[in-house]
Design brief:
Length: 212
């Protein structure tokens, strides 16, 4: 049981994303990859949060607030093109409300939680955790923007996102990580840290494949 809790899930994630790469690269299964992407995101998020150590009403309220605020921000961003720039969501993230996939809110929650978990492993000071986690989320987004159109997630009108996209990402990440620190949410979750870096490797492989 200890192996499954501490080692089995990260190894399962590696196998899971390797299978995903096969589905992505094979022309016969590429459409299937696009179809199942939102469901796999939900599945791995459930697996991650099943390993959260201290569930409470406070924790649920903070994570739910991140979900709602990020989702509302995305809706405004898509509708006005004033926040992240001019972009539209494709079909790669599943069911939408007001042209925004519901799963995008869950993605914000996971990224905030996982980046906070990574930085808080090395320091207990609030400011370094908040700034470090926010910076990590921006680095993640820089890579994600390269592969999002390839996976039919979203597309900016000029192909490349404006600088304002990364500025807003950083500011939102500061707010969300600030909330986690303010309310003392325990994000020490080894599988979450693993999944963050496994996803990064997954995107890097797709980006390199597309480039060459």
């Amino acid at each position: 049981m200890k192996y499954i809790a501490n080692e089995g899930l990260p190894i399962t994630f590696i196998v899971f994303y390797c299978v995903g790469l096969v589905l992505y690269f094979l022309p016969l299964t590429h459409e299937l990859f696009i179809l199942v992407t939102p469901y796999t995101l939900v599945l791995v998020a459930v697996a991650i949060f099943s390993h959260h150590k201290e569930w409470s009403i406070k924790t649920i309220a903070v994570l739910a607030s991140i979900f709602i605020l990020s989702f509302i921000t995305e809706i405004i961003g898509v509708a006005t093109s004033k926040i992240f720039g001019m972009y539209t969501y494709g079909n790669g993230l599943g069911f939408k409300i007001a042209d925004v996939p519901i799963v995008i809110g869950l993605n914000w929650v996971f990224l905030t939680y996982a980046s906070n978990s990574i930085i808080s492993k090395y320091t207990t000071k609030n400011i370094p955790i908040v700034v470090g986690a926010a910076s990590l989320m921006v680095l993640y987004d820089i890579l994600l923007e390269k592969v999002a159109p390839l996976m039919d997630m979203w597309q900016f009108s000029k192909n490349e996102p404006p600088v304002s996209n990364y500025v807003v990402w950083f500011l939102l990440a500061l707010v969300f990580n600030g909330a986690i620190q303010q309310f003392k949410i325990n994000t020490h979750n080894r599988p979450a840290r693993w999944l963050f870096f496994i996803q990064l490797c997954f995107f890097i492989i797709i980006a390199i494949h597309n480039q060459y």
